[in-house]
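About this split. The held-out portion is used to measure sequence recovery: a designer receives only the structure tokens and must propose an amino acid at every position. Recovery is the fraction of positions where the proposal matches the reference. Here is one held-out target exactly as it appears in the evaluation file.
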């Protein structure tokens, strides 16, 4: 083997080593990206579950709020009627 062949082999070996290092780095970056994608998918799934739960809770709260509004109106109407009745009795008592 000549000296120039040995130099060429050394250069080729260095290039191969550099290419393998670059490939290893690319694989590691890809693994990190895949891990990040998996974490993001998990977070998105969790957010979707939270959204569904919150939507259910909101629906329940709206139903409860409507019932409370209805009850409030009924109580208000009854109080109004009671006030009118009391005033009428008081007015009748004052006349007699």
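Reference sequence for scoring:
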């Amino acid at each position: 083997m000549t000296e120039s062949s040995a130099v060429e082999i050394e250069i080729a070996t260095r290039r191969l080593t550099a290419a393998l290092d670059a490939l290893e780095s690319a694989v590691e970056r890809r693994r990190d990206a895949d891990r990040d994608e998996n974490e993001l998918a998990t977070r998105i799934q969790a957010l979707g579950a939270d959204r569904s739960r919150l939507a259910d809770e909101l629906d329940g709260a709206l139903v409860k709020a409507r019932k409370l509004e209805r009850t409030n109106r009924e109580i208000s109407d009854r109080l109004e009627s009671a006030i009118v009745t009391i005033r009428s009795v008081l007015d009748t008592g004052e006349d007699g």
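Annotator remark: The mean pLDDT is 94.
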